[in-house]
Each structure stands twice: as structure tokens, then as C-alpha cells.
Design goal:
This protein is an all-beta fold and 175 residues long. It has no helices and 14 strands. β1 and β2 form a beta hairpin.
Length: 175
């Protein structure tokens, strides 16, 4: 019962330097993955054209990347099977040399989750417990984690139809 229409529980890991795709397995061995994945790191700049500011994305290998540079780290994926896939998880680490800004995804039915430890993912806002001193006593309080502290993003893609493609991305600033 291993057809492309079955539920595909896959994890796609991505980092600043690239991505790896884990292929679906069959009882007979390993088959070609029903998903293709392409990673890109782009430099985000602003230009004025016809009096309007527009965003320009340039391959990072063709631009100087210095502290303060904004990057768009993208993962473009496509269902190359003949049936729908569901239960796809796409993970992307935030490189320690960058600071997370935001995440986006172009396909519908996506739940976005974040992590600060690379193991536990949850919807924003993330919370953490800190110890503070009040009236001379140590007290634990729950506080919201700043997005700049996120170390990874997970997009849970509910369904990807045959031939459907999309792009999930993070914006990060070089430290």
C-alpha cells in the first residue's frame, strides 16, 4: 500500500548551506522521493524604480554579504508523484551567524512552528521561564521569547497535491 496517494511522513532538513531530502522507503527498498527540493540563499535589497521602492533578490554567491545584510533562505519543493502527499514537515535551521526575522510559506494549509533548542517546536509566540529577583526573592516568570532568539522553523504542510509546488522561507540578518 505504498502509493504516492498514501500519507507521506517526511522531514526535510534545511540549513543555510543547503538541504537534504529523505526519500520515501518501500518494503522492497528505497524508491525515488515523491518530492524535489531546491535550496537558495538570496540577498534582499531595496531599489527605487519609477519612484517606487521595490525588493530585489540576488543570489548570495554574487553579492558581498556583510553584517547587517538581510538574507532570504528559501526551500522550493514540488510533489513529483502522481498522487497527493500529506503530513510533510519542512525544517529549516537559523544559522548561528544570522538573526531570525520572519518566516513565510506560499502553500495553503501550513502550520508554522518555531524552536529555540532545535528539538521542541511550537506555534508563536514561544514562552520561556526566567528567574528574576522581586523584593529580594527569586521568582520564576514566564516571558515571551523574542523572534530573534529562534533557532529553527518547521512548516507542517497538511496536503500537497500531485504537481503542486511551493516555497517556504525565512528572513534573517547577518550578525
Amino acid at each position: 500500500m505504498n502509493t504516492p496517494t498514501r500519507t507521506a511522513r517526511m522531514t526535510l532538513m534545511a540549513a543555510l548551506t543547503g538541504a537534504a531530502l529523505l526519500p520515501a522507503a518501500t518494503a522492497q527498498g528505497t524508491q525515488t522521493s515523491p518530492l524535489t527540493l531546491k535550496a537558495a540563499t538570496l540577498v534582499v535589497t531595496q531599489e527605487t524604480r519609477d519612484g517606487k521602492k521595490v525588493e530585489v533578490l540576488t543570489d548570495a554567491s554574487k553579492k558581498q554579504v556583510i553584517p547587517g545584510t538581510v538574507l532570504s533562505l528559501t526551500q522550493t519543493f514540488k510533489n513529483v508523484s502522481t498522487g497527493a502527499l500529506s503530513g510533510i514537515a519542512l525544517n529549516m535551521k537559523v544559522d548561528p551567524a544570522t538573526t531570525f526575522q520572519q518566516a513565510s510559506c506560499t502553500v495553503g494549509g501550513v502550520t508554522t512552528q518555531y524552536t529555540t533548542d532545535g528539538k521542541t517546536f511550537a506555534a508563536a509566540p514561544l514562552m520561556k521561564t526566567v528567574t528574576v529577583t522581586e523584593n529580594g526573592k527569586s521568582v520564576q516568570k514566564k516571558v515571551e521569547v523574542k523572534p530573534s532568539e529562534y533557532t529553527g522553523v518547521r512548516w507542517n504542510i497538511a496536503r500537497l497535491n500531485a504537481g503542486q509546488e511551493g516555497t517556504c522561507a525565512i528572513r534573517a540578518t547577518v550578525k
